[in-house]
Amino acid sequence: MVEKSLVLIKPDAVERNLIGKIVDAYESNGLKVIAMRLLKVSEGLAEIHYKEHEGKAFYKSLIEYITRSPLCALVLEGENAISEIRRINGATDPKAAEANTIRSLYAIDKTENSVHASDSKESALREISLWFPEVINKLELEHIS
Predict the structure, then answer these.
(1) pTM score, two decimals?
(2) Radius of gyration from C-alpha coordinates of the chain
(3) Annotated binding residue at 101?
(4) Which part of the chain is the Nucleoside diphosphate kinase-like domain (predicted)?
């Protein structure tokens, strides 16, 4: 089934000029970039994006990290995109990530792990609507047609 998912190439990876290598990992695995932008995330957007972590010990540092410098947000599309992207990314903790995954290759640690991806269809819809509302509007129109 063709799916869409949000990916964030996080500040640590952007700072180290890894956008191209990371996008290539997705494209080389049959995924297509349908939207992309480089931006410095506002604290407000970061708080909405990470709302489920509010109140946790790491929440404040997570917001500081994701807003410290630009990141690259993208929407990828492909067969079983959500699970495929998560496979390509590898485990959140790079020490536990399989060899040759994005996190095994580029993550600094569990926090600065280079990428974020939606973990379900529901999360993908919510996250894409936050970062790329124009893509969601287009999808809704295509669905109605």
Answers:
(1) 0.92
(2) 15
(3) no
(4) 2-138
Q: Which two tokens stand for residue 58?
A: 């790491």
Which of 25, 15, 133, 33 minimizes the C-alpha distance to 86? Answer: 25
User: Is 138 part of any known ligand binding site?
Assistant: no
Question: What CATH number belongs to 2-144?
Answer: 3.30.70.141
**Domain boundaries along the sequence of the chain:** 2-144
Residues carrying an active site annotation: 116
132 is annotated as contributing to ligand binding? no
Check if the beta carbon of residue 42 is closer than 8 Å to that of residue 32.
no
CA 86/CA 77 separation, integer angstroms: 13
Distance of alpha carbon 18 from alpha carbon 35, whole angstroms: 18
Query: Going residue by residue through the chain (145 aa), what tens digit of pLDDT does each one get?
Result: 999 999 999 999 999 999 999 999 999 999 999 999 999 999 999 999 999 999 999 999 999 999 999 999 999 999 999 999 999 999 999 999 999 999 999 999 998 999 999 999 999 999 999 999 988 766 554 543 3
Spatial CA neighbour of 8 closest among 99, 132, 139? 132
